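Deviations from the work plan: none for this task. Representative record:
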Amino acid sequence: MAVLIILIVLVVVLALVGIVLYNGLVRSKNQVENAWSQIDVQLKRRLDLVPNLVETVKGYAEHERATLEAVIEARNAAIAAPDTPADQAQADNMLTGALRQIFALGEAYPELKANQNFLALQEELTATEGRVAYARQFYNDSVLTYNTKIEAVPTNVVANMLNYSKREYFEADEAAREAPDVSF
Amino acid sequence: MFELIRANKRRSVLLVVGFMLVVVLVGAAIGALVGNGPVFTLVALVFSAIVAFGSYWKADKIALGVSRARPADPQQYARLHNLVEGLCIAGGLPTPGVYVIDDPAPNAFATGRNPDHAAIAVTTGLLEKMNRVELEGVVAHELSHIRNYDILVMTLAVTMVGAVALMTDLAIRMMWWNGGRVPRQGDHGNSNNPLAIVGFVLLILAPIIAKAMQATISRQRETLADVSACQLTRYPPGLISALEKLKEDTTVTHSASTATAHLWIEQPMSGVGDRGKLGGVHKLFETHPPLDERIALLREL
């Protein structure tokens, strides 16, 4: 009788521990997914701002057609990029480089630099770029927690049973590590 | 981090219990002095319970109100809003309320009871004097307070320290009235009452205990928030140069009061130098570690 009670208690305790571990794992996984969609939200916001910027700059810098076209091209490439960390990163870095060149135009055209709209867009784009970076940072932090749980005892047992697999980190590629060169 | 949050919640409970204990003791002390023990003890118990519950739900509003903070306009303070939103994404936090305070001294604080009910307030002086990365460092410091649940303990302390100060002040006044009264028959026995002496000592000690409590709450918390801030921005030089600017600036934050002193990123009242005769004692009541120490620690990151 006593043995039976001990056995029942043991099973119940094990089940409870299992539930807690499982819930923790699910929470981590959802956080990773939420973090990933957050990057998308910020990237989209940035893409939406680009046409406004191009319109504003057009009026002041007619002769910089090449720079403006490069931005539009980079934007289209970013929209078409497949939804994996690596591809998105590449498309996004191109856009970042192109945008830097537009902001550099502000130095060459004083009237543009004095334009309120241009300044507001510049602040908005800088902030959004920061947000994208922060969203990625949060994504990587979430992936770190999640991957650690998948590998570490005792959550790895639960993860194995559920076939949860490790997630890919977001990594900046070689091109992004170097500062984009701005030419006039 | 989770240990930190748990410790903060535990400390909040301790603070509430400690506060209620002090208030009840003071109430009993007043009762012993005036000669109506049980009634005063009961009044003190009810009063402390009301303040404790009120603190939990309303202390953030009180802290913002006392500092005369107003909601920051998203258009006018676009940069501040952008920085707060960006850093919230980095920390996976809901966006807190953003407030500004019209004060030329650069300073900032965070308040609330949990990340879902939080607010950060910065002075207009801070917005003027800091560049983007420095402001980002300061905002990250405040958001760390929110993320670590420091705000809960710190905000509770605002109202509780305030209440203890108010109460002892009142008690001492009552004693004056009592002292000025024409002595009646049987009244002189009062001075021999040992309880009365204990009560008197308690009255004097209560505000000191409250102040020391406030100081211990705040000090390590600031260095911790500095480090967590760098974990958010991944850029220690931003906060370092912000702290250096705060160090150089000697304007006193007028919007701060003794009760809210420990909330701010930089100690709002100018302290006496640490080398003075009372250096050690004074240090007990400092709500913040010296800025030099904080900067040196960040340099090591």
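The two ends of chain B are 18 Å apart (CA to CA).
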